[in-house]
Amino acid sequence: MTDRLCLFSYWRSSAAYRVRIALNLKNLAYDIAPVHLLHDEQHAEDYRVANPQQLVPVLQHGHRMLRQSLAILEYLDEMWPEPALLPATARDRQRVRALAQLVACDIHPLNNLRVLRYFERDWGVPQAERDVWVSHWINEGFTAFEALLQDHPSTGAFSDGNTPTIADCCLIPQVYNARRFSVDLAPFPTIMRIEAACMELPAFDAARPERQPDAP
User: Which of the listed CATH numbers 3.40.640.10, 3.30.30.10, 1.10.3120.10, 3.40.30.10 matches domain 7-83?
Assistant: First the structure.
């Protein structure tokens, strides 16, 4: 298919960040359609048609509207198999998916914008307490992620082997979020080593939040 890709994205959304990394790794040209989450543009009627969940990202491929970042990553890998974002064997694919889901399903949902806004607007939770909440769940998740990486024979320069996978697409945005909330990353040396390897690659560097057209 030759239809142009368009990513509905917010510069600081870690879910959108994952997809930007994958698109860049695949060397795919795409447009960015900014959706400003702090201005509630995700709740506009036309965007609700694109995504009834009122979340980013959405990837438009021709007439198709693709939702959920992990599903989008696998779609990209199936449509454009090279370079692969999943390993060749079922065992290794399961490991990579488990690492990716540890971030995307267990860490990220507990500290994304809509959760923190609910704490603030509906429960009146002070900023300092919200920050403690975020740090707690990132630390718990990263402790597990680090343990799964350390001394595992499949861990290489990246989370699995010596080429980036969807696990790295999910990990790097979460490291960015950890720094935003001043999480101490010293206890996670393997994660830090992998982040350094990733950020040496143009695909990861170009996907940085501060490099996006809607960044302030």
Answer: 3.40.30.10
Q: Give percent of the chain with pLDDT exceeding 90.
A: 99
Q: Can you list the alpha helix ranges (DSSP code H) found in 4-52?
A: 14-25, 45-50
Write the pLDDT tens digit of every residue in 85-107.
Answer: 999 999 999 999 999 999 999 99
How do strand 30-34 and strand 5-9 relate by DSSP bridges?
parallel
Whose CA is closest to 198, among 108, 137, 71, 167? 167
pLDDT tens digits for range 14-33: 999 999 999 999 999 999 99
Beta strands (DSSP E) in 10-129 are 30-34, 58-61, 64-67
Residues forming beta bridges with residue 33, ordered by sequence position: 8
- What's the rounded Cα separation, in Å, for the pair 146 and 161? 15
